[in-house]
Amino acid sequence: MWPTLLSVLSLGFCVSLRIWAAVGEYDKPSLSAWPSPMVPLGQTVTLRCHFRSRLKIFRLIKTDGTSLSELQGIHFNNFTLGPVTREHAGSYKCSRFSRFPPLLHRHSDPLQIVVTGVFTKPAISAHPGPLVRAGGNVTIRCHSPLSFDKFILHQENSTGHFQRHRETFTGGHAAADFSIGPMTSGSAGTYRCYGSVSHYTYEWSAPSDPVDIVITEQGKEKRTE
């Protein structure tokens, strides 16, 4: 009787593991940041781990090897990070938390949290000017007296950004030129640039002043709302 009972229990345990494995295979979480993964120095950001299941308890991990005491332990639904310092900049992952089975947790894809305002803002300018004919091109230049080796150009209300290594010109300033075009309605809008250095990938300068790129067609200006 006992061997039979042990066999049944063993079979049930293996089936449970297979079920948990199947669930884990398709229940990979995702990690998001609100209001944005770009966080000004001293502000806060809320990190939320999303699951297909109703489970809301998760672990948060900073993947670059630095430890933050407030990340220790488990979190329910979301976690507010901040006021952020340079130490908070980096890559994060989350995984669901359960006591059984302990080896089937899947991590989310990494989410990069960028802290801005670490360095003085660069300058920005548009050449030959901010008014551009439809189908034409414009060059946006970011430049700074600081020794940035990377500039990031960001269009407001867009998740994308461009980046380029610095170019040095007379006077020792660092600069990068971004060519945008042929111009469409999606190209128009407000642009800002940030400066950074290779040793501090997730630490950026304060944003530059804005430059508004406007498309003109048949002598009339068309602005994006």
How would you describe this structure to a colleague?
The chain is mainly β and 225 residues long. The protein has two domains: 30-115, Immunoglobulins (Immunoglobulin-like, Sandwich), CATH 2.60.40; 120-216, Immunoglobulin-like, CATH 2.60.40. It has one helix at residues 2-26; strands at residues 30-34, 38-40, 45-50, 57-62, 75-76, 78-81, 90-96, 111-119, 123-127, 131-133, 138-144, 150-155, 161-165, 167-168, 174-180, 189-196, 203-205, 211-217, 220-222. Strands 2, 4, 5, 7, 8 and 17 form a six-stranded mixed sheet that branches. Strands 10, 12, 13, 16, 18 and 19 form a six-stranded mixed sheet that branches. It has a four-stranded antiparallel sheet with strand order 9-11-15-14, with no helix packed on it. Residues 5-25 and 218-225 have low confidence and may be disordered. Pfam families: ig. Residues 34-116, 127-216 form the Immunoglobulin domain. Keywords: Disulfide bond, Immunoglobulin domain, Signal. InterPro entries: Ig-like_dom_sf (IPR036179), Ig-like_fold (IPR013783), Ig-like_Receptors_ImmuneReg (IPR050412), Ig_sub (IPR003599), Immunoglobulin_dom (IPR013151). It comes from Muntiacus muntjak.
